[in-house]
Amino acid sequence: MATVGAFDAKTHLSDLLDRVAKGETITITRHGVPAAMLVPVGDGKRRLTHEEVVQGMRALRARVKPDTMTVREMVNQGRRF
Asked: Which of 6, 26, 34, 49 is the most buried (most CB within 10 A)?
């Protein structure tokens, strides 16, 4: 766990957020006293990768036969991915 002063945190916030996004926890201090912590977001909804989206679309295409569903129904069916 890294420790960063408040002034440095303000100056380098973007870099700190990149580090936190990779899993690091950072403590921000004010005059040497811990004031806040930057921690990665817990089990939030993760974003799908490009490959997962493509696989989902291919699976949908395999399930749907032409002319059996309207375009709106296909869109709604695909929203599960």
From this structure: 26
